[in-house]
Amino acid sequence: MIVHVVDGTYELFRHFYGLRRFAKGEDPPYGGVIGVLQTVLQMFEQGATHLGVATDHVIESFRNDLWAGYKTGAGIERALKRQFHPLEDALRAMGVAVWAMIELEADDALASAARIAAADPRVEKVCIWTPDKDLAQCVRGDRVVQMDRRGKAMRGEEGVREKFGVAPELIPDFLALVGDAADGYPGLAGIGAVTAARMLRRYGPIDAFPPEVLGERRDEALLFKRLATLCDDAPLFGSVDELQWKGPTDAFAGRAQKMQAPRLSDRARNAHAALAA
């Protein structure tokens, strides 16, 4: 089987702002939600059988206590923020496993789900659907891969090396050195991607750097590495069987009607019937 784990937060942002280009100044109250549901349904229609979606139920995590500049929900538009809970509710009604994270982030859920799924010998491949750079650390050979919808790429271990210049296990070190503007930490001044990759290939992880390489900046680099390192031990599910889509619940038709998207219910029933056949 192939297990798909989807970054619901990214997908909600993508659809919300994609729709805004055509909304003529007024954001539909469920526009982003409908877009995500359509994306997930398309995956089922194309043959996906085991799937889970991770969201940031709240934007902050333990990382905000470590670094004051770490990302928060302060800049998220109200119209977008109001769609997080309806998205989670609609996905559950559609029969999809949802991991709404509170103390951890959606990225931690994706990392945890990938680890749990990959431990099952029945799983042929785990596809992590997100373009976020930090998820590259979860890639393992060609069995756990990153699906970059934005870049239209499936990235296995060789793809990660080609893009970043380092192996997946060194991605937290790489991001610690170069920074991650999306997550709100700057990295070390004067160290770009090429230099960071060269240093890591020569010395290994930051923890193993000779003291003189980073000098007084070593502690700061290690802090950024902690920010970049995903937690993969969240107990999201006990078996990948829990991710098998068994079709929409009876409540989904009502949800779709409330969002003025009744066709979603028909698509969900038809997709499940096709998979069952």
Instruction: Sketch the topology as an H/E string, one letter per element.
Output: EHHEHHHEHEEEHHHHHHH
Structural class: alpha/beta
Large-scale geometry:
globular
Can you count the beta strands? 6
The CATH topology of the largest domain is Rossmann fold
List the domain count as a whole number. Answer: 2
Biggest sheet overview = 6 strands, mixed
Question: Would you identify the CATH H-level superfamily of the largest domain?
Answer: 5'-nuclease
Helix content: 40-55%
- Number of helices, where a helix is a run of at least 4 consecutive DSSP H or I residues: 13
Broad CATH class of the largest domain = Alpha Beta
Low-confidence stretches: none
Overall description:
The chain has 277 residues and is an alpha/beta fold. It folds into two domains: 2-163 and 231-269, 5'-nuclease (Rossmann fold, 3-Layer(aba) Sandwich), CATH 3.40.50.1010; 165-228, DNA polymerase, domain 1, CATH 1.10.150. Helix content is 44%, strand content 11%. It has helices spanning 8-20, 31-45, 63-66, 78-81, 84-93, 106-118, 157-164, 171-178, 193-203, 211-214, 218-228, 252-258, 263-276; strands at 2-7, 50-56, 97-101, 125-129, 144-148, 153-155. A six-stranded mixed beta sheet has the order 3-2-1-4-5-6, with helices on both faces. Helix 2 runs parallel beside helix 5 (84-93). The longest helix is centred in the first third of the chain and has 15 residues, at 31-45. It is globular and about 65 Å long. The relative contact order is 0.16. The mean pLDDT is 95.
